[in-house]
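Hey, sorry to bother you again with one of my protein questions. A protein chain has come my way and I'm curious about its shape. It would help a lot if you went through both lines with me. I owe you a coffee for this, so here goes:
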Amino acid sequence: MTASLDAMPQNIALSSTEEALCILDQSLLPNVTRYITLRSAEELFEAIASLRVRGAPAIGIFAAYAFYLLAKQSAKTCDSTEDLLHQCRTHAQYLNSARPTAVNLSKMLHRCLTRAESLASSDLPTMLAALCEEARSIQTEDMEMCRAISEHGLSLLRDGDSVITHCNAGPLATSRYGTALGPLLLGNERGYTFHAFCDETRPLLQGARLTTYELSRAGISCTLICDNMASLVMQQGKVSACLVGCDRVARNGDTANKIGTSGLAILAHYYRIPFYVLGPSSTLDFSYPDGAHIPIELRDASEIKTLFFEQPSAPSDVACFNPAFDVTPASLITAIITERGICYPPFSDSFAKLFPNEYKEGNP
């Protein structure tokens, strides 16, 4: 069975009046499909922090539109582009503090701020028009990158393969095809038959709530499993490959992704199953030499003990450690798939070949 991606709900869009940002609230899926309208800096910040919008590329797209929206609001009380730039810097710093691990947030805010600064000598309407254009370009570029990543990823799969996924890296987390789910969705359009074992991805259940939602709507066969069942399905020979996304990739290939990814990579290494990381070049951060330098977001204990439970799952006074991400060593990764091609170990050589200028400068 195949289904068009046009049936997928759009996750991020600027309102028709360009006075607000409309997003699909991913924290409510799969049971409730609700779009929310955001206007203030506080609402935009909260949407990122509470994972109403999530997925590294999607956060970057959201940040670009949020930057434009806040600039447009600020321009109403600014007398000059210099005044507006001051406000833009403040808003960028505020939004960037919402989440630390996914590099797309800071990178796209920096890109928008750089565009604004390049027009410091222009007038306010010109600067605002340029910022709107920049945000739309970022979204369009991500669609194109996801399509290219999907093509490269599909070349590594065979019709009938069964894969395992972790967290969510489909259209909800990016745009159009997604990254880690992209090869499955693109292959499905071309008549390939795939099956996916989807890790539930504790504690926020992105695999259960979002990945199965996307795959089932696309007509792709999938089976939900608890995170601690991955070893068994691998041991039983049911998995051909692991497909995961990424939130930040260091210069040596170490990769930060949703908590539990590194454990899945260890299992794949033991069972000799290819472990593929799929992500756009926007997630590459060559300024960080290795994964030890990647900041790891820590989240509230309530996500472990009370969220999704009718009754608390542990005594109220029990301490919790709730990191949102972990780092998978480059040594456990079979390949990193980008829009420019497939990078194989040693990743430093592959990055230098596919991203020569960016790798040399240390900041793509």
Residues 5-145 form a domain with the Four Helix Bundle (Hemerythrin (Met), subunit A) fold (CATH 1.20.120.420). The two ends are 39 Å apart (CA to CA). The longest helix spans residues 124-154. The first strand starts at residue 12 and ends at 14.
